[in-house]
């Protein structure tokens, strides 16, 4: 699974830069855009537009049959759940949009989204019961296709997430969760540490980096205090 980083610039009005989210749920959407070419990267371009700024609208990931694109850090609130700026859906859930473009494969897009959900659940300790529909926050009929026929595709989607959760997701390329971003950047930029393994190799190199970074900061802080005394 590859996650493409197309994070919105912090100056964008539809990005709630600095508004931290204590993540409790994942919210699933469908884009509703069936036009040809309305894939994940096209929606990334839309979020960078004046139209999206003025709405405002923003979410964390868009998934199609080929790509997973990230627009916001997971621990930053967005505008996607329709329950108001301070609503729980907007403030504390990761928003995932699944593409429905007519030239894409919706079943494959759902499969990719299920794999992403399983990964995020493992990182943020989210229970499967906390994977919800946009409908659950605002009453909007979204994700529309998945809700049809008594939630037939939704039930299959949840089952697929559970299947992915039972199997180890080998490696996520170009993506480090927000809680480890600073430590991973520090560890991989210091050639003396010689960290060349992926962040989710065994042993978990991201966790190693976080521990080393915390130790390094403690040493630096103690050194400063010693000098002052």
**Name of the top-level CATH class of the largest domain:** Alpha Beta
Estimated helix fraction = 40-55%
Mean pLDDT: 85
Number of helices: 8
What does the model show?
It is a single chain. The chain is an alpha/beta fold and 229 residues long. The protein has 8 helices and 6 strands. α7 (178-189) packs across α8 (205-228). The N and C termini lie far apart (51 Å). The relative contact order is 0.15.
Task: Provide tags for this entry.
single chain, 229 residues, alpha/beta, Lysozyme-like, 2 domains, six-stranded mixed β-sheet, 8 helices
Short summary:
This protein has 229 residues and is of the alpha/beta class. It has helices spanning 40-47, 50-54, 88-92, 106-124, 135-138, 144-166, 178-189, 205-228, and strands at residues 3-5, 25-30, 61-63, 68-70, 93-98, 131-133.
SSE topology sketch:
Blueprint (H helix, E strand, L loop, with lengths): L2 E3 L19 E6 L9 H8 L2 H5 L6 E3 L4 E3 L17 H5 E6 L7 H19 L6 E3 L1 H4 L5 H23 L11 H12 L15 H24 L1
Parallel strand pairs: 1-4, 2-5, 2-6, 3-5
Antiparallel strand pairs: 3-4
Helix pairs in contact: 4-6, 7-8
């Amino acid at each position: 699974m590859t996650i493409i980083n197309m994070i919105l610039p912090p100056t964008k009005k539809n990005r709630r830069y600095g508004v931290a989210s204590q993540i409790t749920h994942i919210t699933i959407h469908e884009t509703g855009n069936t036009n040809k070419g309305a894939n994940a990267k096209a929606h990334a371009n839309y979020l960078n537009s004046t139209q999206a700024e003025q709405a405002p609208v923003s979410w964390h990931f868009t998934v199609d049959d080929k790509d997973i694109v990230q627009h916001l850090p997971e621990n930053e609130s967005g505008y996607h759940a329709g329950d108001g700026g301070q609503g729980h859906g907007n403030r504390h859930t990761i928003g995932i949009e699944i593409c429905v473009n007519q030239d894409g494969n919706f079943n494959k897009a759902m499969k990719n989204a299920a794999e992403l959900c399983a990964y995020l659940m493992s990182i943020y300790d989210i229970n499967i019961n906390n994977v919800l529909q946009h409908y659950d926050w605002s009453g909007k009929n979204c994700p529309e296709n998945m809700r049809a026929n008594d939630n037939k595709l939704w039930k299959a989607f949840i089952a697929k997430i559970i299947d992915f959760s039972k199997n180890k997701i080998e490696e996520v390329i170009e993506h480090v969760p927000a809680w480890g971003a600073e430590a991973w950047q520090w560890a991989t930029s210091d050639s003396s540490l010689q960290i060349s393994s992926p962040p989710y190799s065994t042993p978990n190199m991201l966790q190693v980096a976080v521990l080393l970074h915390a130790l390094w900061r403690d040493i630096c802080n103690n050194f400063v205090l010693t000098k002052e005394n």
